[in-house]
Every structure is written in structure tokens, then in C-alpha cells.
Amino acid sequence: xxxxxxxxxxxxxxxxxxxxxxxxxxxxxxxxxxxxxxxxxxxxxxxxxxxxxxxxxxxxxxxxxxxxxxxxxxxxxxxxxxxxxxxxxxxxxxxxxxxxxxxxxxxxxxxxxxxxxxxxxxxxxxxxxxxxxxxxxxxxxxxxxxxxxxx
Length: 151
Known about the structure:
Helices cover about 90% and strands about 0% of the residues. It has about 150 residues and is mostly helical.
């Protein structure tokens, strides 16, 4: 009788360990999925902010450079169209997140995160260049105003 009890306890212990291991695997998978979704939404917010910053910087630069800031230059129109296209693309990505992400595989989520990271990485040098150009333009305008004031 004692050997049956020991065998039963051993089988029960093995089953308990297997169930706990299975629960941990599912928990890790759920945590990874949740993390990917959170990261994807966070990246979408950051990309939107980057695009809006770029749009505002371009508008400011073109307003300062043009003789009549109320009439946008042709380059400004092209830049505005490119940024608007980026925002439309981002909206499509957000719709995909809303509609497809809950059923997407982990690989699809990882690919979406990687694509959004790549987009932000490509946009970063443009934002940096715009920032430097804005700084240079501000310096030139200050110098121009100083010379006008001195004359």
C-alpha cells in the first residue's frame, strides 16, 4: 500500500510540475505578445510626434524663408505632401493594429515593430538635418536683423 501511495504522489508531483511549466510558457508568451503590442503603440505615437514635428519645422522654415509666408513655396508643398503621406501610412498602420493585431502571430507583431523602428530610424536624420537647418536659419536671421539695426 505504501508503494502505491509513493507512486501516486510521484505521478501527482510530475503532473503538477508539468502544469506549472505549461502555465509559465503560456504566461511568457502572453507577456511577450502584450509587450509587443505596447511597443507597437508606443512607436506609433512617437512616429506621429516625429512627423508632426517635421511638419511644424518645415512650415516654420518656409515661412521665414519666403517673402510672403501666407503663400507656401513649391518645396513646402512637396514636403507637406510627403509628411501627409507618412501620416496617412501611419493611420493605416494604426488601423491594422486595431483590427489585426489581436489575432496576429508573434512574428507578424515583431515584423510590424521592426518596420516602425526602421521608419523612425530613416526619419531621424531628416529631423536632425531640419533641426540644424532651423538653427542656421535662426542665426542668419538674427545676424540680418543685427545688421539692419546697426545700419
